[in-house]
Automatic annotation (TrEMBL):
One of its GO terms (molecular function) is electron transfer activity. One of its GO terms (cellular component) is plasma membrane. [4Fe-4S] cluster 2 binds at C398, C428, C431, C434. It is found in: Cell inner membrane. Its cofactor is [4Fe-4S] cluster. Part of a membrane-bound complex that couples electron transfer with translocation of ions across the membrane. Its EC number is 7.-.-.-. It comes from Endozoicomonas montiporae CL-33. One of its GO terms (biological process) is electron transport chain. InterPro entries: 4Fe4S_Fe-S-bd, 4Fe4S_Fe_S_CS, Ion_transpt_RnfC/RsxC, Nuo51_FMN-bd, Nuo51_FMN-bd_sf, RnfC_N, Soluble_ligand-bd. This is Ion-translocating oxidoreductase complex subunit C. The gene is rnfC2. Binds 2 [4Fe-4S] clusters per subunit.
Amino acid sequence: MSLFNQPFTQKGFLKLPWQGTSFANGIHPEDHKELTEHKPIRRMPFSNKIIVPLSQSIGAPAKPIVTKGQDVMRGEPIAEAGGFVSAPIHAPVTGTVSAVDELVSMPNGSKTPAILIDTWPSSDQAIRYLQPRDTKVMSADELVKAVQDAGVVGLGGAAFPTHVKMKAPKGKTITTLVANGCECEPYLTCDHRTMLEQTDNLLKGLQLAMVTSGAEKAIIGIEDNKMDAVEKIREAINKQQLTNITCEAVPTCYPQGAEKMLLKSLLGLEVPAGGIPADIGCAVFNVGTLAQIGELVPEGRGLIERIVTVSGPGVSKPGNYIIPLGTPLPYVLEQVGAIEKPGMIILGGPMMGMSIATRDIATTKGITGILVFPPEQLPCCNEPEMPCIGCRACVEACPMYLNPSMLGKLADVSRHQEMMDEYHLMNCFECGCCSNSCPANIPLTQKIRVAKQSIRQKARNAR
């Protein structure tokens, strides 16, 4: 079996789609969450140097508003949004700016400008850049502006600027807001711990998002392997008498956390092909994102850190850590006792995350997990790719009703237009179920990803 399946399928056998879920197909991988699911959130010490990339979200990069040699306070704005679909950036530490527009590596191998800050060793790193406000008297527009000023982006991995989706798109109405607490990726538990330890912030952020979106009700959807979080949130909802908010458990099945799958499971509604949740009157937010909104907006401060699950068989101190944005990866690995020569490091989860080729990167707003694997325990199989045997395992696994086998064959001969026109290529969200299921070791997800990138690049070149 090829991509991401040997450690995640019991005894090496393919697990057929679990029919207990209310969306079609999907897979049920071993989750390995026991490494960190009971580890309380802990704060990681500050690194003596912080590297803050200016591109930390979907959209335009932020523009620096500080200069070399300038002293900055923790929480102070250091870069403004580069457009509407962009997010400002705040100083993760108190220190001195040592460089601006320094080119640094990103996880995908590209280079991006960054602001470098030397941390003051004598500082207590208290957050003093605060502008407290009473959210109860703020209008919907004022709340959206506060979320934008805080630099909040989707913390489930997509890193889409949150303020953009805080209000219903023009011509559409949001009736139901969904908080996504599924966290279906193996190993990751940062959302789980957030729901347990930051319940009040989560509910506060959810209520603020309901105000801005105009939603009449909200549902928190959580996979049923996290019933402690379900019970904790239900208890808080009852205590606060939040009659328009409910918390529902959904079957544990990957990729339950994909917003289209979750909407199908919770509401029985399907987002149209090429559409967005607003097309069916919904908006979906990650629970970690909502918890940050609930904490940051009333305090009037920016997003300067996030909870990251650091785990894997190559880590001696796995856990859920609050890590300042811009913390160098080598420093993180040192703090958690990672092995010196790992065979693979993945940012995010093993199904949709990214294997990195260099450690010369820093943490950003979109990094949910850092997974370390020894050479002898890689989360993928090194066996050679074999010809497709026509077993349809990939078709049975695909939650989007696609034919990954045919898409892979067309990708091999670069028939990208046919992939898009006849086989709905762009409906694929690269969940990895097909690669995980393939007994012929065919890296279907990677083939599809490359084809989509080629089509997008061709479209950009044609402008």
